[in-house]
What does this fold into?
Amino acid sequence: MEQKTVVLGVTGCIAAYKSCAIVREFQRAGYRVKVVMTEHATHFVDPTTFRALTHEKVAIGLFDDPSDPIHHISLAEEADLFLIAPCTANVMAKIAHGIADDLLSTAALATTAPLALAPAMNVHMYEAQATQANMALLRSRGVHFIEPDSGYLACGYVGPGRMPEPADVVAFAIGILEGKKDLAGRKVMITAGPTRERIDPVRYISNDSSGKMGFALAEAARDRGAEVTLVSGPVALENPAGVRVLKIESARELLEACREPFAESDAAIFAAAVADKRPERIADAKLKKGRDDDMLENIKLVDNPDVLATLASVKGSRVVVGFAAETNDVLDNARRKLEKKGADFIVANEVGHGKAFGTPDNEVWFVSADGEEHVPAASKRQISDAILDQVVKRLSQR
Ligand code: CTP
It folds into this structure.
């Protein structure tokens, strides 16, 4: 088999020293690595190190190689995967906005290979709205992200921003290169986000769900070859590329929107945080204090349909996965939900007190008739792949 080439971009960040080990890990796995550095990166690691490791020229400046006048294009074309690890906030911003003002950003714009970024930076830079917006934009275009770990950062802060260990970066990259397509030909439906239950035209009952878990699942299933329909409540996330997205507001709309994709699905995953109750009446006009006190103070709530239980009652040979978001007695509650809802397994997690809702990481348990399996804290993308591993296993047994 022909040896595949990874073009490894290294940017000006203290984590650049880990890029040396990334080169080694790729080589051990049988890949050829070509390194492109930004000028700033050379302040952290000398290009000689990468030249010695790769036995290849290390590309830095646009005009460094007189023998190859269009170096950015040849680099872009050679890549089977274009990986930038570590990737600074600046380089990510340039790629998001098509700015090509050095060799690395120009080659990244020119490549048609899959692009993967491993952001590494100070926690406040990582959490800055500009950085998060750039990441969301790149994600919606199909760029892969190796999410940073939380921990002690070189700047002295503790939080997300640290590049994962080289072996993890390389494992993720190889997953993209070799494309685990174990859901090819399968249809997967996923519900995500909160629901909104209207009181009047300007007020509603809702919850803290960000939709990140359901969206991560949709991206993971897509990357594994599935045809994905994502039915989502109102969230502040970009629609993932290559996924059919149906937007709903209320639980009743969710149920209606799910019927057709569920009927066609091989697997259905219910990650939405559905409001159990809704106001019995939705006022046509805004309720006014003073005039409508009686209605505002006595909002009568009635039951919403249970979307998961309703559809699982006609589940046939589909694999059906539910979630249990609990503030306490996580496993007991999950076992109860497994029986009540008719799912094949329940992904149980703890919520509240800063856990799960809106966070990038999650710690879960899979609860099924076979028992419980603990999945230690990992990114929502990694949790998604662990859930899909279970789905694939069950599909293969049918
Ligand atoms: N669910 C659903 N429709 C509802 C309520 C929940 O489809 N009306 C699904 C959720 O998407 C999730 C599972 O059921 O997969 C469990 O949701 P959760 O909110 O944890 O449980 P509830 O059924 O609301 O039970 P409880 O109020 O006891 O927590």
